[in-house]
Automatic annotation (TrEMBL):
This is Transmembrane protein 53. Keywords: Membrane, Nucleus, Transmembrane, Transmembrane helix. It holds the Pfam family DUF829. It comes from Aquila chrysaetos chrysaetos. SUPFAM superfamilies: alpha/beta-Hydrolases (SSF53474). It is a single-pass membrane protein. GO terms for cellular component: nuclear outer membrane. The chain crosses the membrane at residues 168-188. The keyword Transmembrane helix applies. The gene is TMEM53.
Amino acid sequence: MGARGLEAAVELAPELAPGEARESGTERGHADGQPVVILLGWAGCQDKYLAKYSTIYSQKGCTVIRYTAPWRMIFFSETFGIRSLQTPARRLLELLFDYTVENRPVLFHVFSNGGVMLYRYIIEVLHTHKLFKNLKVAGTIFDSAPGRRNLRGGLRALATVLVSMNVLLKYFLLLAFATTAVVLRILLYPLTRFIHESHYDALLKAPSRWPELYLYSQADAIIKASEVKHMADARQQLGVSVKAVDFSDSAHVSHMRSYPTYYSNLCTTFLSDCVRGSPC
């Protein structure tokens, strides 16, 4: 924890004994080494929950980096148009160099809008900073994301984060968030988007072309399934290899809990296909 000033957890892949081989193509790895998976948690996510997803990949011999952006940045900095998430986005990529895994294929596994807001800046950094332009991104998995300007869903997500906070402070923060979101991100968005485009609109036209897997549900009360499907369709029209899976009845960021084997198989198969360069 605390690498480069981030509350990030890094699990390095176990070293193979000389001559030892793993089971699958993904586990045998890329010529430059085993894949690196970067998990971007949902707002308010505790690392112990994100660590459960690490197991999917660490069991396959991957190095895993886990990070959840502070909820204040997600709900307030972004709403006010402050690009404070740019710094952790850059530092996360710098970790690849710190651990000398920068030559390995990278998979992003992104949860909810909290993870997407950070991922949006990671894409920007990947395409604008010389240091990162040679990184090999294999693909991205979106879990319960991305969602558009859904105020009700945002309030539900923030209320969940603030559940243990003083009641008066909790309702003050909810009111402040709702007021700011309505004014800056809804009513004035036709103007403010020229200053600070929403994460959803930025991803619609993102320059990345690596494969994407969308895991969503009609039963999600925070992120609308129709918005995820719209994003998947739009990306596919740009030539991105896209797969979308509707879990139908699982709750927000609860698809793995409801369907652990199916969820794990989807993730590992996608990673394996992307690393091999097959259609994902």
